[in-house]
Amino acid sequence: MTTAVFQPATADTYAHQVLALIAQHRLLTSTQLHQMLMPNTPPRKIHNVLVPLREQGLIAHTVLPGRLQAHFLTPAGHQTVGDWPELRGRTANPIQSSSAASLRAAHILTGVRAHLAFLTDARARGDEYQPLDWVPEVTHRLPDTAGEDRLVADAVFHYTATNPRRLQYRAFVEIDRTTMSSERLARKLITYARFHDYTPQPVGRRGTVADQGTVLAWQRSYPRFPRVLFILTGASRTTLANRIADLRRMTADHDLVTRLSAHVPLGAAVLEDIEAHGPQAKVWTPLAGSSEPRGWAQL
To answer: 141, 182, 179: which is closest to 268 by C-alpha?
Structure first.
């Protein structure tokens, strides 16, 4: 007679997943959590998960226009997830209050919209891309370069295509809601170009990219330099087209960025086009070479 051996469940509960997602993304609406975790179930299912977490004091929420509830972790919630392995080194600056949530909601939730477009498309294609594969506010230091002393990407995502062959992608993402000048947006390309070429040097030693005895800074974090994707929204089609043209002009006119574009795919797209047609559709404008639209993976 064989004695049955109890095996603990390996799947996380919905409550665990909700806390992890809110911790990583900092702020999520009920609808966004539903789309990430249980898109094929009635919307009330996510409320059955959220209510106990609120009653336990692990999450709080702010009410946005349209009566949308956007959820963030309380101090007790942050303490709960503090040592979870899936979040090590991945949580961005936390939101501390309802007022802070309201002030930061527009930018954070716009980024989540882009993430959901990739997630929905990946599910339809059978690709490997999960709700935690979009990591917001990734920072890399550039202490001994001119200009910016750090690069802060709005997000970095990790995506594995499975058909027709298995390919792994990484991308830096810049979310542009037309709240800064077009020139300032385009200057972000210079910061990425500096990071691409940046080799940290020991104290008292000056070196160059050509120094074969050193390691480029980005190689400490990535096996290949991630492509750079700009996602634009918040203005007329004409304004967004002009901003994309300015990005292309910066790529052509600035030597550092031109060199970056020879090694790294660079592209820009309108968020509403990504949501309507999917990120693999021909909605991305390459920032170097031909301006013929293409899918993000074909940049």
So the answer is: 182
Computed over every residue of the chain, the mean pLDDT equals: 91
Inter-residue contact 196 to 172 (CB < 8 Å): no
What separation in angstroms does the CA of 169 have from each of 160, 182, 224? 6, 28, 9
What six digits make up the tokens of 22? 């809110």
* CATH number corresponding to 11-104: 1.10.10.10
Residues 243/182, Cβ–Cβ less than 8 Å: yes
Q: What would you report as the CA-atom Rg of the chain, rounded to the nearest whole angstrom? A: 21
- 275 near 249, Cβ under 8 Å? no
- In one-letter notation, the amino acid at residue 212 is Q
Helices (H), the chain: 14-25, 30-37, 44-55, 75-81, 98-125, 182-197, 237-253, 255-261, 271-277
Domain with CATH 1.10.10.10 in the chain: 11-104
How many Cα atoms are found within 13 Å in the side-chain-facing hemisphere of 71? 27
pLDDT of residue 132 exceeding 80, the answer is yes
Q: Residues 46, 85: contact at Cβ < 8 Å?
A: no
Helix (H) or strand (E) holding 268: strand 266-270
Flag whether the pTM goes above 0.85.
yes
Nearest to 230 by CA among 252, 247, 249: 247
Please tell me whether residue 13 adopts helix, strand or coil conformation. coil
Q: Are strands 285-286 and 227-232 parallel, antiparallel or unpaired?
A: unpaired
Find which of 13-22, 89-98, 195-204 is predicted with most confidence, using mean pLDDT.
13-22
Residue found under tokens 């990583």:
24
Please report how many Cα atoms fall inside a 13 Å half-sphere around the Cα of residue 37, on the Cβ side. Answer: 28
Alpha carbon distances (Å) from 153 to 120, 131, 133, 136, 228: 22, 18, 15, 8, 9
Residue 215 dihedral angles phi and psi, to the nearest 5° = -115, 130
Tell me the CB-side half-sphere exposure of residue 121, using CA atoms within 13 A. 20
22 pLDDT above the threshold of 90:
yes
